[in-house]
Amino acid sequence: MKKYIVVVCFFLLTVGAKAQDMSRYFIDIPDRLLPQLEAEWRKDLVDLYKEGKEARLQNLIGGESSIEKLTDDYLLLRSSSRGTVEMKLLPLVNNTHIICMITTVDGPVADSRIDFFTTEWTPLEASGLYTPVTGEWFRKENITPDEEGEYYLKRLDMDLIRYTLSSDNQTLTAHYTTPLYLSREEREKVLPYLKNEPKIYSWNKSLFK
Question: Which residues partner with 181 through β-bridges?
């Protein structure tokens, strides 16, 4: 009898793990988090995508929204002509999940906001789940700028970061977009002092490190 109970419990846990479905969470997202798309429209987009059709609809702000990619644990939505929303299911150590949601706006340089939620869409404190990168991280450490270089580096007076989630693994990538805000001439002066690679975080079942 005990063996039977163990088998049943294992089966239920396995089914629960497989039941994670990003399309369901996307449809159930509160309207305040995605005001341009009503729940029925979100469902229509999911249905179109799963049928292999172009998942694109008019939204409530007069533009178009489309699902670019959808898997069991990941979604990429082009929410408007100048914005995207990414969602990723992240596993915790207790076999539950939370949702990471990245909202990016090109205005005109891409900048992102990261939010975390339970699977019931209750907000979570982001500060305990990742540490935002600053522009200082992207400066090369082995180069001392001359006077001209210092002048142009000071032009990077705000942190514009585009964050992206991977659909294939549990990584978060930070791209430094502040230089794109400068003129071409200023950008050419400052790029020699900046790293070429983005910052990549990895999820360890409790936070991005």
Answer: none
